[in-house]
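Response to reviewer comment R2.3. The reviewers asked that we include at least one raw input/output pair. We reproduce the pair for S-protein homolog here without editing.
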Amino acid sequence: MARSSLSSSSSTAVNTSAVIMMVVAMVAMAYFPYAAADAVTIVNQLGEDLVLHCASANDDLGVQTLVNLQEYGFRFRENIWGSTLFWCDFTANGYPPHRQDVYKGDRYLADTCWCTSCNWVVSPKGFICNGKQQPSWTWGGSN
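Raw output as returned:
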C-alpha cells in the first residue's frame, strides 16, 4: 500500500511541475519582447505584376506573384538573440532583379527603418518602409 501512495504523490508532483512550467512559458511569451509576433507586409504599387520570393535562414516562404495594389504578409517570432533576418528577391517586367532585406533583428533595419511591423511599398521609385523612402534601396541597387 505504501508503494501505491508514493506513486500517486510522485505523479501529482510531476503534473504540478508541468503546469507550473506551462504557466511560466505563457507569461514569458506575453511579456518578453522577443516573444511577440513581428510582421512584414509588402504592397505592390508598380502598376504591374511583382514576383517576390521571401526567406530567412530557417524558413523559405515560397514564390508569390502580386498584381498591382495586392498585398502579401507574414508573421514570425524574433529569435532570442535578436538576429532574425528575412529578405525577399523581387522581379518585375522592366525592372532589374533586386534582393531586399525586409526585416533585420532587434527591430532595426539598415539605420533607417525601425519596426516590429514592417510595412513595405514597392513602387517605380523604389522601396518604402513604414512611410520612409529608402534612397539607397532603389531598383538594381544593393542594400
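The chain is about 20% helix and 45% strand. Helices lie at 2-31. Further pairs are available on request from the corresponding author.
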